[in-house]
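Task 17 of the worksheet. Students: predict the tertiary structure of the chain below and write it out as structure tokens. Keep your answer in the requested format; marks are given for formatting as well as content.
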Amino acid sequence: MKVGICTLGCKVNTYESEFVISLLKNHNFEIGDFNDVCDVYIINTCTVTNNSDSKSRKMIRHARKLNNDACIVAMGCFIEANKDKVLNDLKEIDIAIGNNNKSMIIELIENFFNNRKKIKEIDGLENPSFEDMYIDNYNSRTRAFVKVQDGCENFCSYCIIPKVRGKCRSKKLDVAVQEITSLVNRGYKEIVLTGIHTGNYGVDIGTNFATLLREVLKIKGLYRLRISSIEITELTDEVLDIIKNSDIIANHFHVPIQSGSNKVLKLMNRKYDIDYFMKKIEKIREIKKDVSITTDIIAGHPGEDEEEFRQTIENVKKIAFAKLHVFPYSVRENTPSSRLEQIKEEDKKKHTKILLELSRKLEEEYMNKFIGKKVQIIVETTKDGYSYGHSSNYLELKVKKELRHNEIYTIKINSLEYPYLLGDVDE
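Model answer:
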């Protein structure tokens, strides 16, 4: 049987989809393009915003149009958030899977084809365990994601992720190290540690993120270790000391700020103020030259009037992020922020536009600093005579030469052609 898979949302979803692909291949399913005519379609959904919900619905309905006789599997956060009504609201779905039973997918697909009855496999997340997933091969041959953590207990006032992902839980340390070792031995040059709340790794199993980093850095042959995202409060002195003394940890940290206003941060139930955030960023820059700091910002959260927005712009400029990931505030049902007075839609759109323009400016300023310098890249793709790859600090390089895939090259940067830096191999 032929299967098409669509993955929406975060890097954790990317990892979980890769795990599902590995299960399917091991059971002799053929993996096709999602837009092909397939026997089974799997949509790994997202619910972080209203737009995510809309995309999830759209792709579920699109799959049914591609083949009316196919088995449509919808799994993940959107399904978990709508578990009580999803099969009634979306008639296209044949199998609905929440966030704790994705490893059952082969059994569920076989059951469906045997009985042709709709299946709902959503246990709820009151006391979830870490669902063991293990990958030793990816479709990509340069960068491999490894999910080491699931769940979140930060309870930011705008967010429903704790509801749809459950309590914090972690992959066992020895299993995580074993999985990464296997991937490195198979030739993956870059490993990305990922989770819903990655920096909170180990809270449930008597260890911590710093210990995980130390153990992973001992793996022979590991060229680059990237942290997908980390909260500013989890950049402890212990973690910073490890970062300081490692050339393997990527020189790029994605640290969500969400707002540059203390008033809005408090309304968001974030666990820091601007002064704390700035001082931690200064520490990172003291120990890592040319580090890239990127961030997430929510535009238009309740309470963000023009003064709060002015403070956000001012503080974002002071911090000098390398890039902003901007998300218009999206009302999520039954969250504390949903009960606050909402700002006007036109103001939300205006703030989003200004932040996106600022992001482009900051990104180009950061990229321009590297013209004339040399960086190392792992070649990821080649197309039309050009090779592409990322540096440690996540600069995307474009080189007019067909270089060997998954090899490391030193590139001298010559110019900026947004979103790429152009360069030549340093012979």
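Marker's comment: The domain at 126-250 is CATH 3.30.750.210 (Transcription Regulator spoIIAA). The radius of gyration is 22 Å.
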